[in-house]
Amino acid sequence: MSAESPGQKQGVKAFFASALRPKKSRQTLRKNASTTDLRLAARPSANEPPPPMPALAPLAAHQLKYKQTHAQIDTQLGERRDYTTMIHTLGLLEPMDTYGPNMIDDDNRPPGEGDIASLTSELWNNIAQYLSPAEAASLAFANITLYRRLGPQFFTALHHPRNYNYRIEFLAGLDRSLPHSLLCFPCAKFHRRTQEGSERLKPTHVVNPLFECPNALNALNPPPRTPITHGRMMPFLFVQLVMRAHRFGPSYGLTAESLGRRWMRDGWSFHSRFHVHEGRLLMRVKSQTFAPPVLTPSQQRLLLYSREDYCPYFSSCPHWRDGELMPACKCALDHIPKPRQTGGLQGIEHKVKDRWAGRVHDPNSLVTLCGFCRPMRRCPECPTEYLLEIKLAEDHSDARGVQFKQALVVTRWSDLGDGTTPAGKEWGAISGTRDDYDSFKHYEKRGIASIFEAAFTADTLPGQRVISMNPKKKKLGENGHDWY
Q1: C-alpha distance from residue 267 to each of 241, 273, 314, 392 (Å)
Q2: Separation of CA 55 from chain center
Q3: Which of 61, 276, 354, 370 has a C-alpha 20 to 30 A away from that of 134?
Q4: What is the distance between the alpha carbons of residues 358 and 353, in angstroms, rounded to a whole number?
Q5: Alpha-carbon distance values, 187 to 152, 182, 190, 218 (Å)
Q6: Residue 84, Cβ neighbours under 10 Å: how many?
Q7: Other Cβ atoms within 10 Å of 161 Cβ, number
Q8: Model confidence band, residue 458 (pLDDT cutoffs 50, 70, 90)
Q9: Which residues, including other chains, have CB under 8 Å from residue 408's CB and lie 6 or more apart?
Q10: What pLDDT, in 10s, does the model give residues 431-450?
């Protein structure tokens, strides 16, 4: 619009109104002569033939190409796996009846006895020859058709004495179907539980049968067990009860917390606690006793050892005689400070020396152990770790009232295994029946104490380096002299 046009407005207001008005786009859509008319292009000419129809729809062609590209061949069966079909099948509300993984837990699937019966007895027996006695008996136990094909020969073979471990392995697989019974290892059969749900750990001198067994009091065929402390044993049946309850449910056994105990014996106080980690039962036992300072070697032995069997009062593994465990305990006792004489000229002399040196004498000060007895020790032959400490503790048994005294604390952590069979590597090593276990190989990344204490935030563990309890790997047993 020109300046002379009648619609032109003058003034400041009109100036800002025209300045703030949005400008027209310079990219004006123009008609190009070379642009093709799509409506005319879509019409086929009279001389051109129509385009050929595709063999597959675009979506079907894409699916076929995806299957050919991403399908993998099973190296065991030679079958192609379509992971897209597997994922979509898992997401269906009504699973496909023809899909293999969905037929595993389907109770309405067609029976397989016909396929089993299509093979001859000779072929099934040849297959069973490649299995162990326990696996062959499990195969014959699967259904009645397999039992008719294989016969009772594999069950009869389990009764042979040389197949005792295979029989235990076969019977251990029946735990899930027998919640009210417990596997007896001396008899190698199941017995009905007589204290179902109320089984408790008791001292060794208390008869505590969990079922009626003809070998309950047979000293020549005792049940598997391992010592916890002097006068306390851990039967394998309780490990079995805890692990059965952990795997199958509370009706099959006990919880790990129900095994914990506190007791006192021979001037020592004990506290045991249990925890299940990755299918294995872990145990921690704290042993504590008040120790006076400046003990002679004879007094140290009376404090540490029982006069009945010359075994330590505190909790220890069967390999405690080999290595540096007992010398480390005696070294820790030597670090208990000797009390000063506060009366007479000797007391005045000590006070003058303390004031001259600028220190304050505290009879209840913390005791620092040396580089020999301070590190945590691990038994190389079984999954067991030890920690020695000198702590101030309250003595309530003193006639003068509550007194603070120095106490020796020995903490033991052990792995008791999975509770399936006493021939397991952890239980066999902790009970002393196996010598092929290497604890530093099985716990090379994380210690047993760290795993246990991490499960309980209330308990704290001082950071210590872990060294071997028997660095020289000498197995002298009672022939050695350092253990006593």
Answers
A1: 31, 20, 11, 16
A2: 58
A3: 276
A4: 8
A5: 21, 11, 8, 11
A6: 13
A7: 6
A8: low
A9: 288, 289, 291, 303, 329, 332, 333, 388, 389, 390
A10: 988 888 999 998 888 889 98
Cα(200)–Cα(372) distance, rounded to whole angstroms? 39
Q: Over the range 31-65, which residues count as b (16 or more CB within 10 Å of their CB) and which as e?
A: eeeeeeeeeeeeeeeeeeeeeeeeeeeeeeeeeee
Q: What percent of the residues of the chain are helix, what percent strand, and what percent coil, each to the nearest 5?
A: 35, 15, 50
Selected residue with higher pLDDT from 167 and 13: 167
Rounded distance, CA 341 to CA 160, Å? Answer: 73
- Angle between helix axes 164-172 and 133-140 (nearest 10 degrees) is 40
Confidence at residue 270, expressed as pLDDT on a 0 to 100 scale: 95
> If DSSP codes are grouped into helix, strand and coil, which group holds residue 454?
helix
The CA-atom distances, in angstroms, between 429 and each of 16, 162, 192, 416 are: 95, 22, 29, 9
Q: Report in angstroms the alpha-carbon separations of 365 from 140, 166, 342, 360.
A: 69, 58, 17, 10
Going by their DSSP bridges, the two strands 72-73 and 80-81 should be labelled as antiparallel
Cβ-contact 484, 310 below 8 angstroms: yes
Q: Residue 150 carries which side chain, given as an amino acid letter?
A: L
Beta-bridged to residue 467, according to DSSP, are 377
> Cβ(227)–Cβ(283) under 8 Å?
no
Q: Is 176 exposed, middle or buried (0-12, 13-18, 19+ CB in 10 A)?
A: exposed
**Distance of alpha carbon 452 from its chain centroid, rounded?**
9
Per residue in 214-265, pLDDT tens? 888 888 888 999 999 988 999 999 999 999 999 999 999 999 999 999 999 9
Determine the 3-state secondary structure of 35 from DSSP. Answer: coil
Q: How far is the C-alpha of 314 from the C-alpha of 333, rounded, in Å? A: 14
Q: Where are the domains of the chain?
A: 113-163, 179-198+210-223, 256-337+363-479
Residue 248 pairs in a beta bridge with none
